[in-house]
Design brief:
- The protein is an alpha/beta fold.
- It has helices at residues 2-9, 25-32, 65-74, 93-98, 111-126, 129-137, 161-172, 200-205, 230-234, 253-262, 278-285, 303-319; strands spanning 18-20, 41-43, 54-57, 80-83, 102-104, 153-157, 176-181, 196-199, 213-216, 241-244, 267-270, 290-292.
- Strands 8-7-6-9-10-11-12 form a seven-stranded parallel sheet. A three-stranded parallel sheet has the order 3-4-5. A two-stranded antiparallel sheet has the order 1-2.
- Helix 5 crosses helix 7.
- The longest helix is centred in the C-terminal third of the chain and has 17 residues, at 303-319.
- The protein is globular and about 65 Å long.
- The two termini are 27 Å apart.
């Protein structure tokens, strides 16, 4: 990576390198059972980082506020951070704002890939692919009754890049799409791929009962944390599926586990679990209606090269006084 950066920037950069500290025994055991340990970062010993003004923060990096404050103390000239994630809920935004550090995310970099996985999950549920695989494993061949895609309705919470692209893909194979936005008036009169656009409140109160799949494409924020509660799940149409490749905490996970056991929703496709406790996590992962994507939706060949190109382009614009993809 260092060679790539030097080659493509003409050697102008003095990157700030950081490395994973060795995980302790407890963290290694927890990782063996599926729990993701909190990453701890340190700057490479001996690195001359005082002149650094731009920082690429890798997607796996999530230092807490104290670690970030210590990092900023080491980087007195830091003016801009490129976070290799679309969501920024893992960053201490108030601290960065107070220090006068601008932050950009990877908006647009992975949107198409996540939207493709959203469609794949909807199709897998509609065509009952997990059930067909189970029948194969049991050596019990049976022709299941499948619904045509043209008769399905997909409710997409979020009308940003991922939600819009998901709607385009779903509409392209004949499905009806409903977009839900906190401010639906912004789309009034504008060209968009949604068959209809409603408010978030209307979507969760009434439109959800008409949808065969509920797809989440919202950022994690105080107002969206736990948005999909047990009461919301209970309003889902019988046989409908939940697709959440956004932040896990948008969904009340214990309520989702209870709902899957009761059959509402009929299935859930999620990127990862946040349930505390190794045994509870393993029990939840074993639920027949739960399907984990293991955050693979944006893990495609060439992703790092594209992120590097985006970082260099955004850094060039930042030196010109324009901060793009800005979140702080």
């Amino acid at each position: 990576m260092r060679a790539q950066l030097d080659a493509r920037s003409g050697g102008r950069f003095l990157p700030t390198y950081y490395e994973w500290r060795d995980l302790g025994l407890a963290e290694r055991v927890a990782r063996r059972f599926g729990r993701r340990p909190t990453p701890r970062l340190v700057i490479e010993p001996g690195a001359d980082v005082a002149p650094v003004s731009a920082l690429w923060l890798a997607g796996a990096a999530a230092p807490d506020a104290a670690e970030f404050a210590a990092l900023l103390d080491r980087l007195p000239k830091l003016a801009w951070i490129y976070s290799q994630r679309t969501g920024v809920d893992h960053l201490p935004l108030d601290l960065l704002r107070a220090r006068g550090v601008a932050v950009s995310n990877t908006a647009g970099l992975t949107s198409a890939w996540v939207a493709e996985m959203n469609l794949a999950c909807v199709l897998a549920h509609a065509k009952r692919l997990p059930e067909l695989e189970r029948l194969q494993r049991r050596h019990a061949p049976r022709a299941l009754i499948l619904r045509p895609l043209g008769g399905l309705t997909v409710l997409i919470l979020g009308t940003g890049a991922i939600g819009t692209h998901t709607a385009e893909l779903c509409a392209g194979v004949g499905m009806r799409t409903i977009g839900a936005s906190r401010r639906p008036e912004r789309l009034a009169g504008a060209a968009h791929p949604f068959g209809a656009v409603v408010s978030l409140e209307e979507a969760l109160q009434s439109a959800i009962a008409t949808a065969d799949a509920l797809v989440l494409a919202l950022p994690l924020a105080p107002e969206t944390a736990g948005l999909i509660s047990g009461a919301v799940l209970a309003r889902m149409r019988p046989g409908a599926a939940l697709v959440n490749l956004a932040r896990p905490r948008i969904v009340d996970e214990p309520a989702l586990v209870r709902g899957l056991r009761a059959g509402t929703p009929a299935a859930a496709w999620v990127s990862r679990l946040e349930t505390s406790g190794i045994l509870a996590r393993r029990r939840a992962a074993a639920l027949p209606g739960l399907h984990l994507t293991h955050t693979a939706e944006a893990n495609v060949p060439g992703r790092l090269d594209r992120a590097l190109a985006q970082f260099l382009a955004l850094e060039r614009r930042e030196r010109e006084g324009v901060v793009e993809n800005r979140v702080v």
